[in-house]
Specification:
Blueprint lengths: L1 H26 L6 H17 L1 E6 L1 H4 L6 E4 L6 H5 L7 E6 L8 H7 L3 E3 L4 H16 L3 E4 L17 H9 L3 E6 L14 E7 L13 H23 L4
Parallel strand pairs: 1-7, 2-5, 2-6, 3-4, 3-5
Antiparallel strand pairs: 6-7
Helix pairs in contact: 1-2, 1-5, 6-7
Pfam family, one: Acyltransferase
Keywords: Acyltransferase, Lipid biosynthesis, Lipid metabolism, Phospholipid biosynthesis, Phospholipid metabolism, Transferase
Enzyme class: transferase
């Protein structure tokens, strides 16, 4: 019963946040600060409704180098309500083109200056990713999920190389952001609040790297994120 009530309140909150965001977006379309603002409109009230407490270790993002590529693990559609609280200023996201057709949210995503990619067309997707080089060079950071899809497994999936091509082409640092595994631990029928930990790792420089360095760079980032997520889960596990 509590879960049903939460989803009703969440639906109302999402609609209200979308309407407020659309007004702001129409007044200043594609502003690079739109996306972080819209994310907070969704996430702060939604996390409270869902009984989620976000514990963020984000000193790296507080001092984020302009024009960084931020990579994170993607667990579920609830990510917006968690990660949205920590998205830094002048940051946009990369998402699949179909997001643009979701009523209200899709229009807000577009007005936020986020990048929509047609994954069904490899040529167009590659062109869109390379076009983001200019965005990075102008000082706007880009957030992307390199797994390419939602993943609730213990192990991160193989990372797609698009984000890394983008970073190397622009000479932009890569900042891994790790979110503790939460999807299977959400107690929507319980009044107890669940803590989700977010940790930003040290930036990884890409200046001077070439496409030949991509395999090692991709594996370095994946290994660092896997270790961080495993450690957060170990620390969060109840003591026997």
């Amino acid at each position: 019963m509590l879960a049903v009530l939460r989803f009703i309140l969440l639906s109302v909150q999402v609609v209200l946040a979308s309407l407020i965001g659309l007004i702001i977006g129409v007044c200043r379309p594609f502003n690079p600060d739109n996306s972080p603002l819209f994310a907070r409109l969704y996430s702060v009230p939604a996390a409270w409704i869902l009984g989620i407490r976000v514990k963020a270790e984000m000193s790296v993002l507080d001092n984020l180098p302009p024009g960084s590529v931020i990579i994170g693990n993607h667990q579920s559609n609830f990510d917006l309500f968690i990660i949205g609280q920590v998205i830094p200023r002048r940051t946009v996201a990369v998402g699949k083109k179909s997001l643009g057709w979701i009523p209200l949210f899709g229009q807000l995503f577009w007005l936020g200056g986020n990048v929509l990619i047609d994954r069904g067309n490899a040529y167009k997707a590659r062109r869109a990713m390379l076009a983001t080089t200019k965005t990075l060079q102008e000082g706007t950071s880009i957030w992307i999920f390199p797994e390419g899809t939602r993943n609730q497994d213990e192990q991160l999936r193989a990372f797609k190389k698009g984000a890394f091509h983008m970073a190397v082409a622009a000479g932009a640092p890569i900042v891994p952001v790790c979110v503790s595994r939460y999807r299977r631990r959400m107690g929507l029928n319980s009044w107890a609040r669940r803590t989700v930990t977010i940790c930003a790792l040290a930036p990884i420089a890409t200046a001077g790297l070439t496409t030949q360095d991509l395999p090692a760079l991709v594996e370095q980032c994946r290994e660092q994120m896997q270790r961080c997520i495993d450690q957060m889960d170990t620390e969060a596990a109840p003591r026997k």
